[in-house]
Every structure is written in structure tokens, then in C-alpha cells.
């Protein structure tokens, strides 16, 4: 079955810049040049929340892994963390000196990486809301930065036409990919963490292996590619382009699978849901669209490690490095739909339990963060006491 348009959200008053699903798919966040952040409910007849706080265009939004927070970056040079509820409270992070174009949580939800027109990539702790360090080797605006799934690497894409790979611990740039012929708009890690995909103004999408630092795939389009998102199975990639289309690429076959027309004017952003059954897109037509994926990953090549041929940059055929995408669940097509139903119910209850655990973890982290703050205060007080004591002793001896 082909992907199909499922929902249509109207409410933004300017270009939609960014979209992201919450873990449970109950909510969808979007950012826009209208300076607002919207949280749409995926349940029918539920009203959307409009969060106002940024003083200028919102360039990027992302839900935390647990779904209890939303981060946004803006042209007002700040990053905000929102609680996606009726009140819409938020806290502000300030350290960038220009537009913030990208926000991304690490998979444990503890860190945030941001990218800015001030040419830096910055890393923050989420719960202490503290700026940790900057990565500054780009020589032009940085459009996008992402953590690897294991949180050890960071990848960044810039208008200096490079994609840089960083080691989070040593804070060093391990490699620069310089094959793009234009600005690099977007970059992300494959779910396995072994590859990255980057989209550029040279109308291409390039996929690199980050272990060998070599180009695996190259897709040539006929319009600027603004955004991309990997399907959680790791087998597909969806892109959003200036020619108003969304394209679904089959990474195993190394070919274009679908071209979707929905937006009037450039498609600016796109993202798969955490389960991969939906994807959302935003455009300069001020609309947010939600699509049903429909193609069932399990029906396509079950054996991921089969070597497929794809077309390389020079048009010749070459063998792709096996995309080892971790676990690949093969759904058995049984006539016995009853069993499938039970299986589905079990999956749902498991998902709910996981969601509950994530919520509990969030509460714990918040508590720890409060304790840490208290501890810091106590340490400061203690230091003060000791200093005072020293002074008293010095005064006595002098």
C-alpha cells in the first residue's frame, strides 16, 4: 500500500520549520516562522496548544525521548524547554549569539545538542539546564546537529559545505565529510549508529559509513533537500524538498520508492514517528500534514545483510556496505488473526508500561536535579563557612 495523507493541521501563520512526534504518538509538535510552537493532539476533536514565548521565528522543535519535555530553538538566539501541557511553562537557555537552527536530545534524555548561526555546536545538560561545552570548527552557519543513538558521537551540518563528526567525550572533530557541492541543510544518524545521511542545497542526499568514513549512497534529486528522517527500521529515508515533494528512498535497494505531493510550495521539514507507522511534514504553505506510512517494513528484505547494489556518484554500480540495522522483526503472516490481536494487545501494554517507566525516570531525574542544586548550595555555604573561619583565624594570629 502507498503512503496516504491521514491528518491535516492548520493554525500556523507562517512557514512551518520543524515537526516531531512524541513517543506515544498522541502529540505532534511543530515550530514556525510565526514565533509559535504548536502541540497538536493526534486524537480527534482535541484542541491544539499554541505556546508563545520566543521573540522571533522558531526554527526547530523536538520532544524529549520520554515525551515530557519539548525543546525549541529560535531566531531570538535562545533555546527553550517546554512542558507540553495546558500551562505551557518553559525555561530559557542562553549561550548562543545568533539564530539557533537545531535542537536534539540524546537518547537517554540527559543532554541537549544545539546548532547555531554563530558557527558553534553547543551541548547542555537538560535537568540542570547548564551549558557544558562548545564545538567550534565550522566556518559558517551550523544548520543541524544530532547525537548518535549511543550518545558517544555528534554529527553537524553547515553552510561551510561540510558535515563534521565529533567525539562527545574528547570534544574533538574526528572527521569532516567535504563531498557536498552546496550548503548542508540537515543530517541525521541511521538508527544503527553506523551511518549518517545528509541533505543539501546541491539537490542531493548522501549516506556515509561513519566507521570507514566512506560514501555509501548518493541520491541526486532536482531540488534543494531541506530535511530528512530515517524510518526506525533503518530501511527507508523520507526527504522534504523545495519542489514541494516528499520522497521515500529504499536504502536496501538504493532507489526512490515514492514521491508524494501534498504541500503547495517548498516542503521544509519531515519526521517519522518513533514507531515508524506515521510521518509528518511541514511546509511554507503553513500546513502540517500527517501521513500513514503503510509500507510494512517487515515485508521488504528480511535479511538486511544481503549486499544490494546501488548507484554511486559516478553512475557505476557498486556494492553497498551491508546496512546492519540491529534487530529486524519479521512479522509472521498467520491466518490466525486472533493471535495477532493478542500480540498487538501485549505490544500496547508493553508500550504503556515503558511509557510509565520513562515518566517515572523523568520524575527521578527532576528530583536528582533538585537534590544536585541543593547540594551545590550546601557546598557553597560550607565553603563560605570555611573561608570565614580562615579569616577569623588569620585575624586572631595577626
Structural features, described:
By secondary structure, the chain is α+β, with helices and mostly antiparallel strands. It has 2 domains: 4-292, Methylamine Dehydrogenase, Chain H (7 Propeller); 356-397. The chain has 1 helix and 30 strands. The strands form 8 sheets. Strands 1-28-27-26 form a 4-stranded antiparallel sheet, with no helix packed on it. It has a 4-stranded antiparallel sheet with strand order 2-3-4-5, with no helix packed on it. It has a 4-stranded antiparallel sheet with strand order 6-7-8-9, with no helix packed on it. A hairpin with a 3-residue loop joins β3 and β4 (36-41). The termini are far apart. Pfam families: WD40 (PF00400). WD repeats lie at residues 9-50, 51-82, 93-134, 135-176, 177-218, 225-259, 260-292. This is POC1 centriolar protein homolog A. May play an important role in centriole assembly and/or stability and ciliogenesis.
